[in-house]
Amino acid sequence: MAKPTKPRRASTTSAPDPPTAARLPWHPPAPPVPTALLISLAALLVRALVSVGPYSGQGAAPKFGDYEAQRHWMELTLHLPPSDWYRNTSDNDLAYWGLDYPPLSAYQSLLHGRLINASLPDAVALRLSRGFESPESKLLMRWTVLSSDLVVFFPAALWFVWAYAKGAVDGSGEERRDGWMWLLAMVLINPCLLLIDHGHFQYNCISLGLTLGAIAGVLSRNELAAAALFSLAINHKQMSLYFAPAFFSHLLGKCLKRKYPIVEIMKLGFVVLGTFALVWWPFLHSYEAALQVISRLAPFERGIYEDYVANFWCSTSIIIKWKRLFAIKPLKLMSLSATILAFLPSFVQQVKSPSNLGFLYSLMNSSFSFYLFSYQVHEKSILLPLLPASLLALKEPHLYGWFVYYALFSMYPLICRDQLLLQYIAVLGLFFLIYYSPGDSHGKRLKVPFGAKVVFSLPCLGSLLLHITYLQIEPPKRYPFLFDALIMFICFSQFVILTLYSNYKQWMLDTHSRSVGLKKDL
């Protein structure tokens, strides 16, 4: 649409209006509320289209996959008392997809189980519904994820973007005014989250949505609400603890700089303890009951890693056979020590100099530390560091685009097993279409030296070749998981570079703030 011009006197000749660049819905100027609604509806439509495809373990008896696990938990929580949800009984065989998430996740399964039971009781019948599959049950199960996304993740994303646009994160007014709509599209149309929740089948949108709401609360100076929301996130999926060092260090740093730091810390502590007490109330009647739940949340017997996850332990196991050389107890100590050492610099920076921008970097650094070094990491855990990376998309567009590509590539074998290749190509293409949308630079044009381009192009070229090789060529019989290992190595190398870069950027915030303070003093 051409820009309005001032009225001019009539003349015999009039010059044509200059051509204008194509504008997409998130390009300024655009009315905020209708634009946000349009982006949200588009994101919801993409989720619905992805959900039409297959899901994890479809038709793969006897244990099927994550879809069956979620359905089975609905069956258990619907028919058994809370005291039996985490115990091995005649009606609850823990060897068959035993519940291994915190109580809030169990309550969510109970709610969804009741909704499905009202429409299709056979899908959640106790003991008789094992492996139940039908078009109707698939539709109902998919709707539970869509509704959860719409109720939890979408409002949290809108709240975060609103806080960002109001100036909660350092940046120019033009960046916030012109970029918030693009940022909302980046957060809502995250291809990894779309494929795992609405393709593979999980409810990461709930725990990540609660975490995102907590982040928005911090940026909006609603620390008590943030503490409650993050406590709920931990009680939905224990992997939300990946973000705990960032939340703790940032809020502690803020409290220490206030007039009554002890009072501020106590208020946050009461909110956290109160939230945990409410969620765990049915299991607090005895020490044994609480301990039974906790034991299910830490499956150390599964080993330090599963499958070919692109973290330190799995990537180095080609050289050092961790599982053979060490028992579970020393491995737990080693992974704990490595994780703490990895997030410690970020933690210290936020205690010393808490800032909202530093908090976002700290969230990424903390979650990356857990992904790379903690015990029992799955390939889907990459969703956790990907969340704060999406929130930094306006500040670090190159980092986010780079990260999304390799995060999605790290899950490529899982996507192929689930037969979601079409959805993989479609959502990745859609994401980069929006990412490189015409008229939206958002700092994406960066001058990179030729040597650096060559270095960073090599893993990208290797990943493109592996995309085709993985589907078309059989690996050697002696090394049946050769291509999985190569994918793991490439992604691990990129994740290490991203982690080092993100830590560097967080610590440079102190240097920048000191230089700004010096200029102000002068």
Mind explaining what this structure looks like?
There is one protein chain. This protein has 522 residues and is mainly alpha-helical. The chain is built from 21 helices and no strands. It has helices at 32-51, 66-79, 103-119, 135-165, 173-188, 191-201, 204-219, 223-236, 244-256, 261-280, 287-297, 312-316, 322-325, 328-352, 356-373, 383-391, 397-410, 412-417, 421-435, 450-472, 482-521.
Strand coverage percent? under 5%
Largest sheet: none
Question: Helix coverage percent of residues?
Answer: 55-70%
> What is the H/E string?
HHHHHHHHHHHHHHHHHHHHH
Brief summary:
With 522 residues, the chain is mainly alpha-helical. The chain has helices at residues 32-51, 66-79, 103-119, 135-165, 173-188, 191-201, 204-219, 223-236, 244-256, 261-280, 287-297, 312-316, 322-325, 328-352, 356-373, 383-391, 397-410, 412-417, 421-435, 450-472, 482-521. The longest helix has 40 residues, at 482-521.
Per-chain topology:
Elements (H helix, E strand, L loop, with lengths): L31 H20 L14 H14 L23 H17 L15 H31 L7 H16 L2 H11 L2 H16 L3 H14 L7 H13 L4 H20 L6 H11 L14 H5 L5 H4 L2 H25 L3 H18 L9 H9 L5 H14 L1 H6 L3 H15 L14 H23 L9 H40 L1
Helix pairs in contact: 1-4, 1-5, 1-6, 2-3, 4-5, 4-7, 6-19, 7-8, 8-10, 9-10, 9-14, 9-15, 14-15, 15-16, 15-21, 16-17, 17-21, 20-21
